[in-house]
């Protein structure tokens, strides 16, 4: 009996110590060490996104890809070294652009306060500011992330959800990262901005069952919309260069029309279409489109904060990279 009590106390103390040692993200982490950091980043995004609006989408997506592999630690930005291919060399990531943009933001922040602000936090902040710049909501981004030193292509291939996934697989992928069904529904709403290459969804137009030939389209895609895409956009099954707006008509505006498109069976990917194959997810989407825009703004922001906290490195873990593409020399 007494021994069990001792064991219990030891376990509790160990848990408290582990909890205490693990620093957390918090809003305003740089308010003393680099008070201008968030403003420098926001000003740069607000000034440049109007000239290159496509960058907003890629910055938002880059933060997502970063967080899903080794946590939000800017491993997605690391260059290949020696024989090691990095996350950015994985196929799903080759369509991520905007590294030059992040490098320029980082240089400005380094000039103000050298060695203080992590690339991982810059990714989280530029993602938020990109949403603001495209007309979406703003929110406070908890900061204090540290940068990782490892980036491995295969991990990106294994852990970033594929556009061919069904609802069960998508939910598993999100649950693997401590996100839930609501996070899956709201974060998919990011597809309200940006583009896709034809080869991210081409089998839905030409070769859904593998039989190929006329008529082998995905029945869950609006047939008129599919015909239009075949005629005007993805004219061959092997086109890997043409880009298609994911939310046609408002692909530069962060709004609810992506969800309206999904309800009309006009989501581009199977992963978009999958969201209405689950009753709870579909009910969430219906709630969003039938509510004032503030509803989606709030739930999206909340899920972004959750995503931004996946497996983060804090305190003395990792490092503050000097250049986002390479680890520091010691
Ligand atoms: C739910 C699982 C998801 C899948 C399967 C998925 C898949 C994809 C694919 C295949 C593309 C097109 C890439 C290309 O062909 O160039 C894309 C684009 C995009 N994704 Fe997702 N995505 C998912 C979730 C997310 C999340 C959580 C976010 C951010 C919070 C996000 C943000 C974006 C954005 C903004 C683009 C447009 C990129 C651009 O215009 O360059 N996606 N996604
Ligand atoms: C990272 O790789 C890119 C593309 O290969 C190259 O242009 C860039 O100079 C590299 N960055 C650094 C800091 O080595
Ligand atoms: C989803 O895909 C997996 C893997 O292909 C498959 O085993 C499963 O049956 C599918 N689930 C549904 C509901 O279609
Ligand atoms: C989820 O994690 C498990 C265990 O690590 C892994 O085997 C599985 O492939 C993951 N599923 C997805 C969809 O990422
Ligand atoms: C259709 O898909 C099957 C199976 O994935 C593949 O073997 C075939 O080459 C594809 N056909 C075309 C025209 O892409
Ligand atoms: C696109 O397809 C062409 C022709 O099939 C191929 O040569 C090229 O490597 C592909 N490009 C990419 C980025 O996959
Ligand atoms: C250019 C390139 O390699 N694009 C790939 C991006 O990732 C998707 C899957 O997510 C592939 O289908 C593309 O071929």
UniProtKB/TrEMBL annotation:
Residues 1-23 form the signal peptide. The keyword Endoplasmic reticulum does not apply. It comes from the Eukaryota. The active site is at 65 (proton acceptor). Its EC number is 1.11.1.7. Ca(2+) 2 binds at residues 192, 247, 255. InterPro entries: Haem_peroxidase, Haem_peroxidase_sf, Peroxidase_pln, Peroxidases_heam-ligand_BS, Secretory_peroxidase. Substrate binds at residue 161. Its cofactor is heme b; Ca(2+). Residues 24-328 form the Plant heme peroxidase family profile domain. GO terms for biological process: hydrogen peroxide catabolic process; response to oxidative stress; response to stress. The keyword Cell membrane does not apply. Heme b binds at residue 191. Ca(2+) 1 binds at residues 66, 69, 71, 73, 75, 87. Binds 1 heme b (iron(II)-protoporphyrin IX) group per subunit. Binds 2 calcium ions per subunit. One of its GO terms (molecular function) is metal ion binding. Disulfide bonds join 34-113, 67-72, 119-324, 198-234. Keywords: Calcium, Disulfide bond, Glycoprotein, Heme, Hydrogen peroxide, Iron, Metal-binding, Oxidoreductase, Peroxidase, Secreted, Signal. The record marks 61 as: Transition state stabilizer. It is found in: Secreted. Belongs to the peroxidase family. Ascorbate peroxidase subfamily. Belongs to the peroxidase family. Classical plant (class III) peroxidase subfamily. Removal of H(2)O(2), oxidation of toxic reductants, biosynthesis and degradation of lignin, suberization, auxin catabolism, response to environmental stresses such as wounding, pathogen attack and oxidative stress. These functions might be dependent on each isozyme/isoform in each plant tissue. This is Peroxidase. It comes from Setaria italica.
């Amino acid at each position: 009996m007494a021994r069990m009590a001792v064991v219990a106390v030891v376990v509790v103390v160990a848990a408290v110590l582990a909890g205490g040692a693990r620093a957390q993200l918090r809003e305003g982490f740089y308010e003393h060490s680099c008070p201008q950091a968030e403003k420098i980043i926001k000003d740069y995004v607000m000034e440049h996104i109007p000239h290159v609006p496509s960058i907003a989408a890629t910055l938002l997506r880059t933060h997502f890809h970063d967080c899903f592999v080794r946590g939000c630690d800017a491993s997605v930005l690391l260059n290949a070294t020696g024989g090691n291919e990095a996350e950015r060399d994985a196929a799903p990531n080759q369509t991520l652009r905007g590294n030059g943009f992040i490098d320029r933001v980082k240089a400005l922040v380094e000039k103000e306060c050298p060695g203080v602000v992590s690339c991982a936090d810059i990714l989280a902040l530029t993602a938020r500011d990109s949403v603001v710049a495209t007309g979406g909501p703003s929110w406070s981004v908890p900061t204090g992330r540290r940068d990782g030193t490892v980036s491995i292509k295969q991990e990106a291939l294994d852990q970033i959800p594929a556009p061919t996934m069904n609802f069960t697989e998508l939910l598993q992928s999100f649950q693997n990262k401590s996100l839930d069904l609501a996070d899956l529904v709201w974060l998919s709403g990011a597809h309200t901005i940006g583009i896709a290459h034809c080869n991210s969804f081409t089998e839905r137009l030409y070769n859904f069952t593998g039989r190929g030939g006329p008529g082998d389209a995905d029945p869950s895609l609006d047939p008129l919309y599919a015909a239009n895409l075949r005629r005007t956009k993805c004219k061959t099954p092997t086109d890997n260069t043409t880009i298609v707006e994911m939310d046609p008509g408002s692909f530069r505006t962060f709004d609810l029309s992506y969800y309206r498109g999904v309800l009309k069976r006009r989501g581009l990917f199977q992963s978009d279409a999958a969201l209405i194959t689950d009753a709870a997810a579909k009910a969430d989407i219906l709630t969003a489109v039938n509510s004032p825009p503030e509803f989606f703004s709030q739930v999206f922001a909340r899920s972004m904060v959750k995503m931004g906290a996946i497996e983060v490195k804090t305190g003395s873990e990792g490092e503050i990279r000097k250049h986002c593409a390479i680890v520091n020399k010691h």
